[in-house]
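Good morning C.,

I know you're traveling, so I'll keep this short. The sequence:
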Amino acid sequence: MLVLSCDKYSDAWDDFFNLKERFWPNCEYKWYIVTESKEYSRENVSTIKCGTDLNWAGRFRKAVNEVDSPYIGLYLEDYFIQSPIDNERIKGFVDLMEK
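The tokens, ready to paste straight into the viewer:
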């Protein structure tokens, strides 16, 4: 799961992940936050730093190339999860993509 962001929105990162942990505590997917230069220290979240020379699309492209996964779930730092996520439903979407 990629959370595409930039350094100037770092004030939203804790809120995003607090809600993710509240509404999707049993998520089995690896989480990444894509930043320009800031490090984000949080359990089960890896930071992908892309530098300040890339725009939104460039950061997304670079992050996708750094993640070792055939599928990517995309979030923005202000896409706040507001209700429980059903793991079985997400697995169903992945199964559908694989078919």
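Safe travels,
E.
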